[in-house]
Amino acid sequence: MNIRKTTYLPLALISIAFFLMGAQWEVITEEDGIKVMMKEVKGRSLPVFKGEGNVNENLYEILGVLRDINKGKEWMHSCKDSKLIKAIGDRKFIVYNVTNAPWPVSDRDVVVESEASFDKATKTVTIDMKSIEHPDMPKVSGLVRMPRLIGKFTLQAVSEKVTFVTYEIDADPGGMLPHWIVRMASRDIPYITLTNLRDRAKAMSEAGTYKDAVKLYREMGDNWN
Fold this sequence. Notes:
This protein is an alpha+beta fold. The chain has helices spanning 11-21, 59-67, 179-207, 211-223, and strands at residues 26-31, 34-39, 48-55, 79-88, 92-99, 108-119, 124-131, 144-145, 148-159, 162-172. A hairpin with an 8-residue loop joins strand 2 (34-39) and strand 3 (48-55). It is globular. The relative contact order is 0.22.
């Protein structure tokens, strides 16, 4: 997670973003204060999906959870493995993820670069994610390497103890998926991930697990302009 003032996306990602602006979000579920939406994109097996809702914890506590990459599989829905490949400072990470898929579909894996930016005016941290190729993580037999993943976590401080979190993923999982898996993934991945993030952030805050990371991000926040 690279916290900086401005994030520049490659031209290809900008083109995709403009294309998706024409699609409409469809609300597929709304419960427990979490709203889940999706956008159908012609020619893709998986729609773009997004979940959003309040997490009753400080923004920095949530950053602490997200920073603990190797523990991601303990709370991110369908995450079979999450491994830090390289940290570039305290703000930017190269990560390897494996997503568990129900039988008979093969599990998916992907190498992701995540980098964050901060808007002090709106008290918002945006963690942008994009799939990349990495020489230390070649394709693995038995897994399908995802051709594309673009996503983000957006954390907006509502108050000292409440953060509005948005989790959005636009991915090409590789190959065609059964419709029932598409519908299930579109709902369950954002909904359960945000539900688990609520529980994880609360438990870690009460235990003081990420107090050093929280202190680091608070100090950085004080210097954001």
